[in-house]
Amino acid sequence: MSQECIFCKIIDGDIPAKVVFEDDDFLAFNDISPQAPTHFLVIPKKHISGPAALTDSDQALMGKLVKVGTDLAESSGIQDGFRLVMNNGERAGQTVFHLHMHVLGGRSLTWPPG
Ligand code: 5GP
Ligand code: ZN
Q1: Nearest CA to ligand 1 atom 12
Q2: pTM for the whole structure
C-alpha cells in the first residue's frame, strides 16, 4: 500500500469505483475516462509501481492478471476483439504508478496506437 496511490485507495474503498471483478489478488473496475465503449482496468492488489518494477516472484501473479482480463473481456461481450495495454513510464502515457492493465473493446481499434 502506498499512501498517496489512488489505486490503493480504490482497493481500500476510500475512493469509489465501478468494480467489475474482485478476488483475493485482483480488482477490476471501469476506467473513469473510457477510451472505448468497454474500458476497464485490472490491477493487482499488491502495490507495484509498473511493469518495470516487476520481479521474478511476480510472474505467476502477472500470468493470472492477463487471464483475469481475458476472462472479463469475454464475459463483457467483447470477445470478438479487445486490447490489453500496460503503459510503462510517463513517456508511454503512464499516469498512475500502480501497475494496471487496460482492457479495451466494443469498437474497431486502430494500430499503431498514438
Ligand atoms: P495510465 O495512463 O497510467 O496507463 O492509465 C491510468 C488510467 O486510470 C487512465 O485511463 C485514467 O482514466 C484512469 N484513472 C485515473 N484516476 C482514476 C480514478 O480515480 N478512478 C478510475 N476509475 N480511473 C481512474
Ligand atoms: Zn497502489
Answers
A1: 33
A2: 0.98
